[in-house]
Amino acid sequence: MAAGGRTDGALPDLRRYVVARPIYNEPSFQEDNESIPGPSTTLRERAQKACSCSKRRALQITKTFFPILEWLPKYRLKEWLLSDIISGISTGLVATLQGLAYALLAAVPVGYGLYSAFFPILTYFFLGTSRHISVGPFPVVSLMVGSVVLSMAPDENFRVVSSNITGLNKTVIDIDARDAQRVIIASTITFLVGIMQLVLGALQIGFIVRYLADPLVGGFTTAAAFQVFVSQLKIVLNVSTQNYNGVLSIIYTLIEIFENIGTTNIADLIAGLLTIVICMVVKEINDRFRHKIRVPIPIEVIVTIVAAGISYGVDLEKKYNAGIVKSIPSGFLPPEPPAVNMFGDMMASAFSIAIVAYAIAVSVGKVYATKYDYAIDGNQEFIAFGVSNVFSGAFSCFVATTALSRTAVQESTGGKTQVAGIISAGIVLIAIVALGKLLEPLQKSVLAAVVIANLKGMFMQVLDVPRLWRQSKADALIWVFTCIASIILGLDLGLLAGLVFALLTVVLRVQFPSWGTLGNVPGTDIYKKVTRYKNVIEPEGVKILRFSSPIFYANIDGLRSSLKSSVGFDAVRVYNKRLKALRKIQKLIKKGKLKATKNGIISDFGTTNEAFEPDEDPEDPSELDVPTKEVEVQVDWNSDLPVKVNVPKVPLHSLIFDFGAVSFMDVVAVRAMKTIVKEFERIDVRVYIASHLDHIMKNLELCDFFDDSTQKEMFFLTVHDAVLHIQSQILHKDSQDPIFEKISLLQESKEPIEFTETNQSEELDVQEEAMRRLAS
């Protein structure tokens, strides 16, 4: 191989290259280049290797399950500790407030949100592979937990009859019993989610999250943000509604909110609106001046403290009937076992929550892992969150993942490792032990407003839709469909519907892939679509078809259709028409209307049929043998025939399939390809396959693609190899045109053969089977 041209003292022109090599088909390439056989190991050998153990392997496995052993010994105490402390304190304050707020979404008393912001961090510190995510509640996951809790423990199940001093009976809700049951349900589903995540991690199927494409997750989280907004809106307004679940539940909730909007508590509404406005303004300041403000202003903490102080000082509950937190338990509750009898009722929802929680955590973790140049292990993350949820489920927590806003605080304030996470857990611990009572006067509308203010990022994802539409209409449709389905059907069914729709778009794109006819860029070995470039030329008599997809049972009909559209005719129809023409010629010969000669076939009127080429140098009739003689004539199927049969023209002599984009073929596709090859070969169109992958050849061998007539010589390394082979065959062909077909008409008459030139006429009795055989 030579690179460019070179003269003495001159540098080679590296912008051009010239390659000189043989034309390679599959057998010739295998002959010149010995293939390397793949490693062959028995099941026993693989089992022995997997079960073998050494000191080094044991240490590696231990570090895999406990990543802290990998990064903690490398911890830079002087450089990182101060940053982690500052980050941990800032994150802990935010986590405390978000824990209280997200407990409202999970439909459990707000105090249990503090437990959910504390316990999961303890185990993730040892088992997690991400150094930057802040583990704890997340609004979408909390809302999914809350939907399960509300469906299994609605208010209607806890109505009791109470007598007042006037002796009148009144139906009220036993709030204590209701909250206790809801805590059991939330902790049970958390435990079940943890078990599922552990199983998925142990089975090494962390790849399952790849099926949750970014457009799908974007549409789902935006719909979840809308669900969260509606659920918190009634708390901001302090309007009582029924707890709807399932299909159209959000619509029913909105309708009831507007029906009861006249009962809005003004004190709660004002507090909520002020909180939303102040939080969003300060967050915008934090975002715009993040390079100047090293530690973001913890506006949620400030607003919460001020709101609690105002509520306590003014006594909003008694004067204005404002809804307040009322009771936050101090200290910890003893661990409780899960209610195993509930597993069957929450299995499907638990699986959805397990996947969504994992997907959110891994997606956020990968962003920061890429930014700081380290890797996270997807399977280990499954195990880490599984253990965290099993552990925290025993302490009355709800499902943990990571929150985008809280993680952003931990990273932007200088957090380097999960030491910042464990310090944030310490801040939450202080709130649980000592500060709970101080937050009891806090209005619930303030907590709901904090939740709404943190939804801005998820609502802003709507702006991704126009960009997605420009880049990929299929991805934009996935986003929109998942969002609408999740709003209408609910989060669990909406996620399932979005996943099915996303997979359906993939199936449709594979079932109806792009295809095109290729042409050659003159003077190069480059082949491009003829419809895309002006100077691309199709080789004469050669059609090159590229099919950009795996070929399997679902799209084989598409391949046939695109092939027919590219070549301009149906090979089966052409064959049948030719066979019909041959049969009519046979009948005319039997009736004496056509006569066979060495020069071709003539009619009764002695006029030569122009559809057949006469021999230039006919043999002497006297040299012919006895009556049973094989007489050959040539039929030009692209000319006029002596019979009234419309035989389609076939302007091709070669057909090349470019298999460069074909990654696999199933049994149905192999059989169909073999049929296609046979159909074209019998109408004198040679079929070649180029640019195939090595495993495709092996697959064809296993599926018995090759036989006496279909050989490996039809496979070429590149399209250009195939074209050069065809051109060389044309240059060295015989004088006979390959478009012509020899038809042997067997003379079975025992009378002497009679030729027109010598007034010795002869009628040929041709067997139909012979005609069929010779036409193929």
Automatic annotation (TrEMBL):
InterPro entries in alphabetical order: S04_transporter_CS, SLC26A/SulP_dom, SLC26A/SulP_fam, STAS_dom, STAS_dom_sf
CDD domains named among the record's database cross-references: STAS_SulP_like_sulfate_transporter
Keyword Membrane: yes
Topology relative to the membrane: Multi-pass membrane protein
Annotated stretches, region: Disordered: 756-776
Membrane-spanning segments: 81-104, 110-127, 184-209, 257-281, 293-314, 346-369, 381-404, 419-439, 476-508
Name of this chain's protein: Pendrin
Native species: Eublepharis macularius (Leopard gecko)
Gene name per UniProt: SLC26A4
